[in-house]
């Protein structure tokens, strides 16, 4: 899809798989989170520096649909695009297996900002994300 604004390639590690030989479902959340953090870095935002400034983006809700399992050694691409809904930043994140481009996971991740301990909008994010918001 041309609407994706960021993508990150990764590879499944042995320890991420369960007894069935496929990636344990919880690890997909790690992949999605790592992609969002790397996206932030790519637009000049340090997650750690934000926290030091009293700004904490947090996940409010996540919805994941598992389509095709990944196995140890599989290479995959995690892609995202985003929208803003009120004070929420909604990340639409999909993971594709590189070998055949099959959809692995389709997800929607709703995030909000807590600024100095209070739920708030973030002028910083509004400015930085403006070019990417649909």
UniProtKB/TrEMBL annotation:
SUPFAM superfamilies linked to this entry: Thioesterase/thiol ester dehydrase-isomerase
Keywords: Hydrolase
Family: Belongs to the 4-hydroxybenzoyl-CoA thioesterase family.
CDD domains: 4HBT
Organism: Bacteroides faecis
Segments passing through the bilayer: none
Name of the protein in its database record: Acyl-CoA thioesterase
A Pfam cross-reference name: 4HBT_2
GO molecular function: fatty acyl-CoA hydrolase activity
Xref: InterPro entries: 4-hydroxybenzoyl-CoA_TE, HotDog_dom_sf
């Amino acid at each position: 899809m041309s609407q994706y604004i960021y993508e990150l390639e990764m590879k499944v590690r042995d320890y991420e798989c369960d007894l069935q030989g496929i990636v344990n479902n919880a690890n997909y959340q790690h992949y999605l989170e790592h992609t969002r953090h790397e996206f932030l870095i790519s637009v000049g935002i340090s997650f750690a520096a934000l926290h030091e400034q009293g700004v904490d983006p947090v996940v409010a809700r996540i919805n994941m649909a598992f389509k095709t399992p990944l196995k140890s050694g599989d290479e995959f691409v995690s892609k995202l695009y985003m929208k803003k809904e009120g004070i929420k930043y909604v990340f639409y994140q999909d993971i594709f297996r590189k070998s055949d481009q099959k959809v692995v996971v389709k997800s929607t991740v709703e995030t909000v900002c807590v600024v100095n301990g209070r739920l708030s909008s973030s002028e910083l994010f509004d400015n930085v994300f403006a070019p990417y918001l649909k």
